Amino acid sequence: MFNILLISDPEIQSKIFSLRFFLLSLFGTLILTNVQSQDHKTDSLPLHPQPFPSDSILRITNLNPYFTIHVDSLLNYDLRINKNPENYYWYLKQAPVGVRLDRSSGTLFFKADKSFFRSGKLRYDLPYRVDFGVQSLGNPLDKVDTFVTIMFYSTEISPSRVKPGVLGTLYVEEGDTIRFRIQCETGTFPLEQINFNSNIPISPIFPIRKCDDEFFWMVPYDFIRENDTTKQRMLLLQFIGSDKFFNKDTAAISIAIRPGINYPQKYLEHKKVSDEMKAYIQNLKLTFYVLSKSIKANKSTRTAFDITGSSTALAGTILATTASNPDVQDIGKILPSIGLTLVPVKEAVAPNKVQEQNTAAQLRGLTKRLEYLVSDNALIGDRDPEVLDKTRKLREELKQAQLQLIDLPAVELDINLSQEEADKYFNDPKVIKKYKLKVN
């Protein structure tokens, strides 16, 4: 079947043998390389780099989420996107006062003027959020909304001040109410707490701890004691505010307190003295009634004796001169003597009560005077500023009247006698006319 070529030349045989050996070696190397490649994992990296996918999602490439700006400085930050900016526009959603965003270029701009902070529109050390976005002019769904934070600071320290609602020195009286608010002028660092001190221990109704607290205190009526030599006491108040770094500011207020009138108590004292005066006047009227009636009865008795004596003397004279009977004439001569004897009897039975008459006139005059004083010193309302003077005058007049009538003899009063009868008799026109002062 096979034709075998027989070569007798030894040189040619040697070359053929060398060629066969080379071919066998090459074939064995290929087999070994194939086996080793199957034993190892295939390399995942491509032999040649692949191109990156295209950037199709809109995003801001240089977004800085936080800015810290010094006062009187300028913020000018260009925001960039990964697409053609000519096809997009920028907008602000929410930002502090003064922040601007260029619609076309996306430049975020702000000039930190001190006027913003002095007017209270902005504050130091407080983060402010700036909400903004960028949107495609052609596709409303192609947009990005985000925000950045801006915080302002200043190296210039403006101290905070305590500003009470009142200034200087206050002049008040006992019983008055002191009420004002503790205000604060906020500087670089706000006042966090306020302490309260005074030279005299007092207890305000509301504690003072922070700004806008209210000082509310009513001056007690015993603030100035009766044994104090001075008629005015000075109360010094200090309000000490401090911030978080314990920088302090102090506001001082002086209060001059003078003696005041405790109207509820003084009203009761005046009422008590006035009631005592009225009761004393009623007793004087009752006494006057008894004395006047006694004087009137005594006067009637003396008048009866006088009429009887005169009638007897007149009858005796008539009988002695006109009677024809000697016995009747003798009786007429005796009757005048009998009339004369009635005079000492009259003085013995009903002596003339001059002292009682004078006492009754004195009682009536004193009673009228006390009634006028009670009416003239009556209080006008519950807070009459002259309540002290009126009470003192009533008390002095009552004491003087009691001393004036201290020697008045005791008069027995009828228990059946009513106060209305005594008042009616005291104001009777006949009695008034009887005791009215007569000028010759």
In angstroms, what separates the terminal alpha carbons? 203 Å
Helix content: 25-40%
Rounded mean pLDDT score: 80
Number of strands: 14
User: Which spans of ≥5 residues are poorly predicted at pLDDT below 50?
Assistant: 1-7
Gyration radius from CA atoms, angstroms: 63 Å
- Helix and strand content put the structural class at alpha+beta
Question: What's the arrangement of strands in the largest beta sheet?
Answer: 1-7-6-3
Strand proportion, as a percent range, falls in 15-25%
Question: How many domains make up the 3D coordinates?
Answer: 3
General shape: rod-shaped
Major sheet description: 4 strands, mixed
Report what the structure shows.
This protein has helices spanning 10-39, 114-118, 263-322, 326-349, 354-376, 387-404, 419-426, 429-434, and strands at 66-70, 74-78, 88-94, 100-101, 107-111, 128-136, 143-153, 161-164, 169-173, 177-185, 193-198, 214-218, 233-242, 248-258. The chain is of the alpha+beta class. The chain has three domains: 66-153, Cadherins (Immunoglobulin-like, Sandwich); 161-260, Immunoglobulins (Immunoglobulin-like), CATH 2.60.40; 264-434, no CATH class. Strands 1-7-6-3 form a four-stranded mixed beta sheet, with no helix packed on it. It has a four-stranded mixed beta sheet with strand order 9-14-13-11, with no helix packed on it.
